[in-house]
Amino acid sequence: MRKELLFTDMNGRGRREAAGLWLCGGAWTVTENARGRFEMKKKGFTKYLFVLPGFCFFAFAMLLPFFMGIHIAFTDWDGVAPEYHFVGLKNFIAIFKDTRIKAPFLNTLEFALLGTVIGNIIPLSLALLVNGKYAKLNTIARVIFFIPVCLSSVLTAFLWKFLYHEFFPEVFGWKNILGNPRWVILGIVIIGVWNTAGTNMLIYLSGLKNIPLELYEAAKMDGATGIQRFRMITLPLLMPSFSVCVTLTLTSWLKEFATTLSATSGGPGGSSRTVSIYVFDNLYKYYKAGYGQAISLLFAFILIVVGLLVSSFFRRREVEL
Amino acid sequence: MKKYRVELRKLPYFLLVLFAVLVFAMPVALAVLTSFKSKPDLAKSLIGFPDQIYLENYRGAIERSDFFHSILNTVMVVVPSVTLIVLCASMSGYAVARYYKESRILMLLDKVYLASLMIPFQILMIPVYKIYKTLNLLNTLHGMVFMLVGTSIAYSAFLYVGFVKSIPREIEESAYIDGCSEFKCYWLITFPLLKPISATVAALHMIWLWNDFNISVILLQKEAVRTITIKQFYFFGQYTADYGMAFAAAILSMIPVVLCFVFMQKYIVNGIVVGAVKS
Question: Angle A214-A215-A217 (CA atoms, 0-180°, nearest 5)?
Answer without folding.
Answer: 60
